[in-house]
Structure formats: structure tokens, C-alpha cells
Amino acid sequence: MTVNPKDTTYDPEYKKDNLKLLRLYLKMTQKEFIDFFLTDENGKPLMSVASLSNLEARGGPQLNKVVLLVSEKLELNAMLFSLPADQFNDALSLNLNSSEVAQNLQEKGEKGGNTSRLVNRLTLHFADEIFNGNLKRGDQIEPERVLAQKLGVGRSSIREALKILNVLGMIDIRPGQGTFLSGTDENFFVIPLSWSLFLDGVQVDSILEVRDILEQKAAELAAKNNDEVKTARLGDVFYKIRKAYEENNVKDFLDLDIEFHIAIADLSGNPIIYSEIQTIRNLLKHVSETGMASEEQMRQIYLEHQKVYGSIIAGEPEKARQAMEEHIKSSSSRYQFQ
Fold this sequence. Notes:
Blueprint: H1 15-25, H2 30-37, H3 49-58, H4 63-74, H5 85-96, H6 100-131, H7 144-151, H8 155-168, E1 171-174, E2 178-181, H9 190-199, H10 204-222, H11 228-246, H12 250-267, H13 271-287, H14 295-313, H15 317-334
Antiparallel strand pairs: 1-2
């Protein structure tokens, strides 16, 4: 089924935004979208998650091909992608409500998304109970039946969410005894927060925005911190980066780049910033397909690291923040993720 709206202006500039709107409408992660719509006859992906993210954000030469492939699979008129966002949404509702393919995709997305949301709801529930004095670390939590009733979901959904929290280390499921809050103080709520990035799927643009903010704040706080052990660790990482640069060892240089940023986050003294940057850095390492292309790029990165490191060691918070901001902006122009 197709829709032919009247009295409207078609504009190809809308295509990239509408492509993302469609994916969100279907409740699919970027990887799920690629696996379903953008594979060849052998099931091999036609693009990476990073490439799709760039396509949704900036467009590109592959945009028309992707729109045609998606339209064909959903039996949509490809011209719909050139409509303004509000008209495109209306067209999706009208065209996809009767599409068995679209309905199956939405149901699949809702099941995955519901588990993730329930994990977050349970985390907030336990936090409220702790702050209100009803629970403390190591206490036994309410039975699945009670939690299901309070949150308005089925017991099986509660059971699945609790299994995830158990794996994350927030709770301790003891067969035959019950379920208990973790007695460990360290990173009690930070771990579920970090791993929610994975549970919710890889949304590269949003993750990059959060990363940029956290990296700048981490550098600023690191310059204020007098922790000798963590400062020494950062110095050791920077020394290794300089050595890798001087020896033109690209692999070590790239690996140490991640360590450098994580060491700064650690020196910030904020455990949430440290955990989030560590998670985001490792996540982006897996979804990025680009790397260092030349010795000149290595030189630029090294000099930028040197400026960030020097500002932190000198105890100059604002200069450290600015140096990190400049480094991130320069990295974005060199290759997809830094």
C-alpha cells in the first residue's frame, strides 16, 4: 500500500531524517536495521553501524540506495521519504498498520525494549527503597509476585529483568533463599547505568554527544585532583603513547589512546564519569571501522594529547577542558570516532 499526499512539497533533504524516523518507528537498533534491511543475498551486511549512523546524521551517496532497499522490503513508495517529518509519520501510520512485516518488527522491538526499560525501573525502585530507609545493602528484596504487582508487569518479565541485574552484580539471586541487594558498595548503581548503553542498542550519535560532554568535564576535574597514584598512572600512559609515536607503532598508539582517556576519567575522581567513559570508549571501539591513516594524523593526535596532559599536570582546569574540546573536534574531522 502506498500514500500520495496532495498539496505538499517533496524535498530530498528530508530523506536522512526520515530514515532514522522509520528505524525508531520500528523500534529497531541500528544493527537490527542493517541485519534486516541492508544485507546481500548471502546475509552479509552492506554497511557498518558507524556508516548507517553517519548516513542518518549527514546523508551521503548511499542514501538513495538504502531508501530504495527499505522501501522495497516494506512495500512503501520511496517518495514518502522526501516528505516533511510530520507528513512522513502520518504516512507511516497509514501505510504500515496493515503491513505484517512492519508489525512483526515492532513487536520484536517492543519485547527487547521492554526488558531494558524494566531493568531501569527496577533500579530506580530499589534506589527509592534505599533512600527512604526501607532497604539497605545486603537486604532481601520483595518476591517477584510483589514486584510484578507494584510495577504493573508480568512475573516472567520481572524474572528476566532480575536475571540481568544479577549478572550486572546489583543483586544476588540465591536459589532456595531469595533475592538480595548486593552488599558491595563500589559502583552499586553505576554498573547498570553503563550497561544500559548495550541493553538499549548502539545509538552512536547520542552516545558521542554524551561522550564529548563527559570527556571535557573529566579533563577539567582531573586538573583539580591531587591523587598522586592516579596522576602517576596517567603519566605512565602518556609516556607509552610518546614511545609508540616515536616508534611509529600504530597499533599500540591506538590502544594507548583509549587508555589515555580512561586514565583521565579515573583521575577526575568521579566514579560515574569514569565508568561511563570506560564503557563508551570500549563500545565505540567495536562499532567504529576506521583507524589512523597516516603518520601526520599520529603526530596531530600526539600533540593534542600532549596539550591535554600538560594542562592537567599544570593544574589548569579550564585549559584542560578547552584542550580536550579541541582534541575531540579535531578527531571528528580526521576520522569517524576518536
